[in-house]
Write a structure and sequence with these properties.
The complex is a heterodimer of chains A (91) and B (737). In chain A, strands 1, 2, 3, 4, 5, 6 and 7 form a 7-stranded antiparallel β-sheet that branches. Chain A starts with a strand and ends with a strand. Chain A has 2 helices and 7 strands, in the order βββαβββαβ. Chain A has a single domain, classed as Ferrous iron transport protein A (FeoA) (SH3 type barrels, Roll), CATH 2.30.30.90. Chain A has helices at 35-44, 79-82, and strands at residues 2-3, 15-16, 25-33, 51-56, 61-66, 72-77, 85-89. Chain A is α+β, with helices and mostly antiparallel strands and 91 residues long. Chain B is elongated and about 115 Å long. Among the domains of chain B are: 10-259, 3-Layer(aba) Sandwich (Rossmann fold); 529-603. Chain B is built from 28 helices and 14 strands. The longest helix of chain B has 42 residues, at 280-321. In chain B, the strands form 3 sheets. In chain B, strands 1, 2, 3, 4, 7, 8, 9, 11 and 12 form a 9-stranded mixed β-sheet that branches. In chain B, 56% of the residues lie in helices and 8% in strands. Classes of the chains: A alpha+beta (91), B alpha/beta (737). At the A-B interface, α1, β6 and α2 of A face α3, α7, β13, α8 and α12 of B. β6 of chain A pairs antiparallel with β14 (481-484) of chain B, so a sheet runs across the interface.
Chain lengths: 91, 737
C-alpha cells in the first residue's frame, strides 16, 4: 500500500471512516490506498478535505460526499477501502 | 450569481473562439462523416442523451481488443432550427420550439455520435479511461469504424453534481478539441434548488454550454445547434489534479449556487437504509426479482407462443411450396426450424432488458448490486453479477449479455464463464424425463431432485468462478466503490431503445452464427438417407396381409332384422363384429407404429450424428450410456432439450411429449440385448448430473465468444463444463450402479 497522493492533509485527531456513526459528518484527512484506488476515489469526489456524511454504517458503507462546490453524490464503499480512509470528525 | 433559469439556454463564448479546421463539417476527414465523441462521468444520463439524439439510428459494437461496448449513432444536425442571436455573433439562446430570427446556424448534415464509456476521469488507469483517451487522440474507434480524431466532443455533466463533473469538462477542454458542454438533468437540479447560469458557465469554460434534460427532451434542439458549430475553448484549465479541482470549485462558485439543504437527502437516506439493510434489503431484493422474473415468464409466454406458431406456419408453408426433397428439408427443418428454435427466446431477452433497464434507471439496481456484493465477493464475483446469474436461470443468452453491466473485466469474464451452469428453462424437459424415471409417482422426491439440480448448478457455478479468479483470471479486483445514483422516475424511451438494441444484437447473432450451426446439426442428424431395415420391410408385408379384406373402420355395418324378435340379436352380432374389426385395426396400427419406430431408429442410427454417437460410445461407456443414449447426448450438443425428442424418436419412434404411450416406451426401452433397460437408476442419475453441468447449448457458446471478446473463452467454457459434467456423471454412475 502506498499513501495516496492528493488524499492527505495535516494530521489531527482522526478516526477511520468506518468508525463514524450513522449520520455523523467528517472531513477526509488521509487515505492509505493503492494509487489506482485512490485516483478513482479522488475522481469520484472523495478527496482530501472532502466533507462526508456516513449514511449507512457496516459492510459496505454508504457515504454522502460533498466536495464543497455543489458536488453531492453517494458512494458505496467496501470495507477494505473505507477502513483506510481517515477522517476528522466535523461537528 | 444568476438565479435558476426556467428555460434552457445556450450561451455563446464572449471571448474570441478559435475555429480550427476539424471543427468544420467533414473538413478534416474526407471520406468519413463528421464525428462527435460523447463523454462524461457515469450516471450523468449520457446514454439517455445518446438515445434521444440518435433514436434507433445506431449500431452497437465494441472497441477492438476489449469487451467494452461501443455505440455509434447518427444525428442530423442539419435539422437544427435557426435561433435568436444573443450578444455576439456566437451567442444565442432560446427555448426548444422557439423560432427566432437569428438564422445563424448553418446546416452541417449527418454526424456520427460515439457514446464513450462513462469515466470519472480521463487520466485514470482503467480500461474505460484508456479507451476514451485513445478515441480522443484518434488511435481507436468502435470496431468497423474509421480511426480518426473526433471533430468535436460533447461533455455531459450532471446538473445536480456540477462541482465534480466540471473536472471532467476541464480535462476535455485541455485537449483542444471543439467542445460543447451539456448540463443534463437540469429539471432535477432546478427542483433541488440549484441555480446554474449557462451564460456565466459558458464564459468561464470558453465554449458553448447548453442546459438540457435528456429525459424530457428539454434543450435538445439547442444542443443540436451548438454541436453544429462547436469551437475549441478559449480557456486552458490547469493540468494538475489539485489545480483542476480548485479551478472547478471556482467555476462553480461563479456560475452556480447550491441549495442550503433539501428534504430529498433525508428521503434518499431512508430509501438507502431500507434497500441496503442486511435483512430488509435482501427481502426487498427477493421481492423485486421475483416480480421481475414472474413478469418475464408470465408475459413472455404469449409472444413466445406466437413466434412458435409463426415458425410452424412458415415450415408448413415451405413444405407446401417447395417440392419434396433435400431442398425442402433444408429450408423447412434446417433454416426455419433452426432459426425458430432460437428466435423463440427473443421475447424473454427483450422483456428482461426492458425491466432491467427500467430498474436501473430508477437507481435501485445499484443498491441491489450493493446488497449482493457481500454474498458474491468471497467467490470473486461482484454484486453486479447477481442479475446476470439470476437471468441465466431463464436462459443463459440474456444472462451473458447482461454481464455488460459489470465494470471489472476479470469479474465480467468470470460471470460469463459460469452463467451457463445455472439451470435454464431448456434443461427442464430433460429434468422432467429423468426425475419421472427415477421417482415415478413420487412427486415430492421428484421435486427435491429438481431443487437439487438447481442447487448443483449454482454450486458448480460459484466454485468455478472462485477457481477462475484464482487461476486464469487472477488479479486484484477493485474493492467496491460504487456511486449510488439519484433515485428518479425511469425513462421508458431509454428502456425501449436499450431493449431494441439488445434484441437486434441477439437477432443478428441468430441470423448468422446460430443459423449456420443449426443447418450443420440438422444435416448431421438427417443424412445420409438410408432405406428401411429388413425387419420393417417384413412387417410391411405383414400389414399388407392384415389389411387385405379388412373392412374399413368407417364403413357402415348393415343389419336388417328378419323378424321383430331378431332385432336385438342382430344388433348384438353387429356390435361384436364391430369390436372385432376395431381390434384388428388396432393391431394394424400397432404394427405400423413399430415400422415407424424401426425406420426412425434406423435413420437416427445411420445418420452422421448417429455414427458419431456410436463411434464415441466407448467414451460414454463408463458413464453407463449405450449407443442410443450417446446419440441423444450428441444430437443435443446444440440444444439440451433435443435430448428428449431424440430419445422419443430413437426409443419410441415418435416425438410427441404429450403422448403417455411414447413416454412409457422410452422408460421401458431396452438395450440391444433386449433385457437391460436403457434408463436404469444409475444411468438416469448420471444423465441428470451430466445435463445439469454440461455445456449443451451452441447459441450460448456463440454469445460467449461475442461478449467475452474471443472464441477462446467459448472453447474454455465448453471444455471446462463438459469436463466437469463428465467427471461428475462418471462418479455418480460408479457409485449408483
Amino acid at each position: 500500500m502506498t499513501e495516496a497522493p492528493g488524499l492527505t492533509t495535516q494530521h489531527q485527531a482522526t478516526t477511520r471512516l468506518t468508525q463514524l456513526k450513522r449520520g455523523q459528518r467528517g472531513i477526509v484527512v488521509e487515505a492509505s490506498l493503492d494509487a489506482s484506488d485512490a485516483a478513482l476515489l479522488r475522481a469520484m469526489g472523495l478527496c482530501a478535505a472532502a466533507k462526508v456524511r456516513l449514511c449507512r454504517a457496516g459492510e459496505p458503507c454508504i457515504v454522502a460526499v460533498d466536495c464543497g462546490c455543489g458536488g453531492q453524490c453517494r458512494i458505496g464503499l467496501a470495507r477494505p477501502l473505507a477502513e483506510r480512509i481517515m477522517v476528522r470528525v466535523d461537528n | 450569481m444568476d438565479g435558476p433559469s426556467d428555460r434552457s439556454s445556450v450561451a455563446g463564448v464572449r471571448g474570441t473562439p478559435q475555429v480550427i479546421t476539424n471543427g468544420e463539417a467533414g473538413a478534416a476527414h474526407p471520406g468519413r462523416m463528421r464525428r462527435i465523441a460523447l463523454l462524461g462521468n457515469p450516471n450523468t444520463g449520457k446514454t439517455t442523451l445518446f438515445n434521444r439524439l440518435t433514436g434507433l439510428r445506431h449500431k452497437t459494437s465494441n472497441f477492438p481488443g476489449t469487451t467494452l461496448e461501443a455505440r455509434l449513432g447518427r444525428v442530423d444536425l442539419a435539422t437544427a432550427r435557426p435561433t435568436r442571436a444573443l450578444g455576439g455573433s456566437d451567442a444565442c439562446c432560446g427555448r426548444d420550439g422557439e423560432d427566432g430570427d437569428g438564422l445563424e446556424s448553418a446546416p452541417v448534415g449527418e454526424t456520427e455520435l460515439i457514446d464513450l464509456p462513462g469515466v470519472y476521469s480521463l487520466e485514470l488507469d482503467q480500461l474505460e479511461a484508456r479507451v476514451c483517451r485513445d478515441v480522443l487522440v484518434g488511435v481507436a474507434a468502435p470496431r468497423g469504424d474509421v480511426v480518426g480524431v473526433p471533430d468535436a466532443a460533447c461533455v455531459v455533466l450532471d446538473g445536480t453534481n456540477l462541482g465534480r463533473n466540471l473536472m471532467m469538462a476541464g480535462e476535455v477542454l485541455r485537449r483542444r478539441l471543439p467542445t460543447v458542454v451539456a448540463v443534463n438533468m437540469i429539471d432535477l437540479a432546478h427542483r433541488r434548488g440549484f441555480a446554474i447560469s449557462a451564460e456565466v458557465l459558458s464564459e468561464r469554460l470558453g465554449c458553448e454550454v447548453v442546459l438540457i434534460s435528456a429525459r424530457t427532451g428539454e434543450g435538445l434542439g439547442e444542443l443540436r445547434r451548438a454541436l453544429g458549430r462547436a469551437r475549441v475553448s478559449s480557456r486552458t484549465p490547469p493540468g494538475d489534479d489539485a489545480g483542476l479541482r480548485a479551478w472547478a470549485e471556482e467555476v462553480f462558485a461563479t456560475a452556480a449556487s447550491r441549495p442550503e439543504g433539501s428534504g430529498a437527502e433525508e428521503i434518499t437516506d431512508r430509501l438507502d437504509r431500507a434497500f441496503t439493510h442486511p435483512l430488509l434489503g435482501v427481502v426487498l431484493f427477493a421481492v423485486v426479482m421475483t416480480g421481475l422474473f414472474w413478469g418475464l415468464f408470465a408475459i413472455a409466454a404469449y409472444p413466445m407462443a406466437w413466434i412458435e406458431w409463426v415458425f410452424t406456419w412458415l415450415g408448413s408453408g415451405v413444405r407446401a411450396v417447395v417440392p419434396e426433397g433435400p431442398v425442402q428439408e433444408l429450408l423447412a427443418d434446417g433454416v426455419v426450424g433452426g432459426i425458430g428454435a432460437t428466435v423463440v427466446f427473443l421475447p424473454q431477452i427483450c422483456l428482461l432488458f426492458l425491466l432491467i433497464s427500467l430498474l436501473e434507471d430508477t437507481g435501485y439496481l445499484a443498491r441491489a448490486a450493493f446488497v449482493m456484493d457481500r454474498v458474491l465477493r468471497p467467490f470473486g464475483l461482484p454484486g453486479h453479477a447477481f442479475v446476470p446469474l439470476l437471468s441465466s436461470h431463464a436462459c443463459a443468452l440474456p444472462g451473458i449479455m447482461a454481464c455488460r453491466a459489470i465494470p471489472d473485466r476479470r469479474q465480467r469474464l468470470a460471470t460469463i464463464l459460469v452463467a451457463p451452469f445455472m439451470t435454464c428453462s431448456a434443461r427442464l424437459p430433460v429434468y422432467v424425463l429423468l426425475t419421472s424415471i427415477l421417482f415415478p409417482k413420487q412427486p415430492l422426491l421428484a421435486a427435491l431432485a429438481f431443487v437439487g439440480c438447481y442447487a448443483l448448478g449454482i454450486v458448480a457455478g460459484v466454485l468455478t468462478a472462485l477457481l477462475a479468479r484464482r487461476t486464469i483470471l487472477r488479479g486484484k479486483s477493485r474493492p467496491m466503490a460504487l456511486e449510488l445514483p439519484t433515485y428518479k422516475a425511469p425513462s421508458l424511451r431509454t428502456a425501449l431503445v436499450t431493449t431494441v438494441d439488445r434484441g437486434m444484437v441477439f437477432l443478428k447473432n441468430a441470423g448468422t452464427n446460430i443459423l449456420m450451426i443449426c443447418i450443420v446439426l440438422w444435416w448431421l442428424s438427417s443424412y445420409p438417407k438410408v432405406g428401411p431395415p429388413q425387419e420393417a420391410d417384413a412387417l410391411r408385408g405383414q400389414v399388407a396381409a392384415m389389411k387385405e379384406g379388412l373392412t374399413p373402420l368407417n364403413a357402415p355395418i348393415h343389419w336388417v332384422p328378419r323378424t321383430p324378435g331378431e332385432s336385438r340379436n342382430a344388433r348384438n352380432e353387429a356390435s361384436a363384429a364391430r369390436q372385432e374389426l376395431e381390434l384388428k385395426w388396432d393391431e394394424v396400427s400397432r404394427v405400423e407404429a413399430e415400422i415407424q419406430r424401426l425406420e426412425t431408429s434406423q435413420a437416427a442410427r445411420e445418420s452422421f450424428a448417429g455414427r458419431i454417437g456410436r463411434a464415441i460410445q466407448p467414451v460414454f461407456e463408463p458413464l453407463g450410456y449405450d449407443w442410443q443414449l450417446t446419440i441423444g447426448v450428441v444430437t443435443s450438443f446444440a440444444a439440451r432439450e433435443v435430448f428428449v425428442s431424440t430419445m422419443n424418436v430413437v426409443l419410441a419412434g415418435q416425438d410427441d411429449p404429450e403422448n403417455e404411450t411414447i413416454r412409457q416406451g422410452v422408460m421401458s426401452a431396452t438395450r440391444d440385448d433386449g433385457v437391460t433397460p436403457v434408463f436404469t437408476s444409475a444411468t438416469s442419475w448420471s444423465l441428470l448430473v451430466y445435463y445439469v453441468l454440461a455445456m449443451q447449448c451452441l447459441p450460448t457458446l456463440a454469445v460467449t465468444a461475442r461478449e467475452a471478446g474471443g472464441k477462446r473463452w467459448a472453447l474454455l467454457q465448453l471444455g471446462w463444463m463438459s469436463g466437469v459434467a463428465y467427471v461428475a456423471a462418471l462418479i455418480v454412475y460408479q457409485i449408483a450402479r
